[in-house]
Amino acid sequence: MTRWIIDNWGKDNELMVVFANTGKEREETLMFVDQCDKEFGFNVVWVEAITNPENRQGVKARIVNYETASRNGEPFEQMIAKHGIPNVRNANCTRELKAYCIRAYARSVGWKKSDYQTAIGIRIDEVDRVSNKFKEERLIYPLVSNIPTTKNDINKFWSEQSFDLQLMTYEGNCDLCFKKSFRKLMTLVNEKPNKINWWQRMEDKYGMFVPDGKKHNLNIKPPINFFRQNKSIQDIVDMAKNDFDPAVDESKYIPDYKVEQLWGNKLDSGDGCGDSESCEVF
To answer: 0.85 cut: is pTM over it?
Structure first.
């Protein structure tokens, strides 16, 4: 999508390619962003959110690069310390660490929200993820409306490149993102048990914390955990000890493919980003 935008809209528009790092991106993702920048000439601006702990004080953006980017969840923990543990009902991590951070950077270089649009990499075959506030938020989806693109089209594109994102599709960019299905999470905690520690530490440290602005909400009852149905990371680990069908990689291009989509697997129910939150790399 980013290459298409630069090739097709670059002459008539001022473009800015931004990567917002949360500190919980996989190392493979950081390497991929850096390589895209070098191979495709994106001129990527790497930013990280600075969370002001004071109420009514918004996020600021600091500029980093591949070498200096946080890798131990530092921006993420700053956000949790103010806003509490995020989950599928309250995905404040995407809002604060990506959307607001990118907006803060845009403001810092003189861009007003009303003057620019933000392109999101949602595909035509996941159109249900398009935000119902896309007009209000000035979001555009080129892979839906301009160049309708499927997962298989994406896989074909990358099969023709000299490099690729070295991750299985079920791994994703954020190492144990709570938006993943139970099946993906269980697969990952079995394959990458070293990724568990940070999530466990956050739940231990902030699980009983309710921000002042949410204390009036009687539906919020600590402990607050990251995962669906308020399951903790330890719950996911325990679930993964049972027999289940592991998640599989879907990153290979299938020529002349025919795909039968299977619905109703409870382990994968609700998988993916919410309709107004999106965690695409660029």
So the answer is: yes
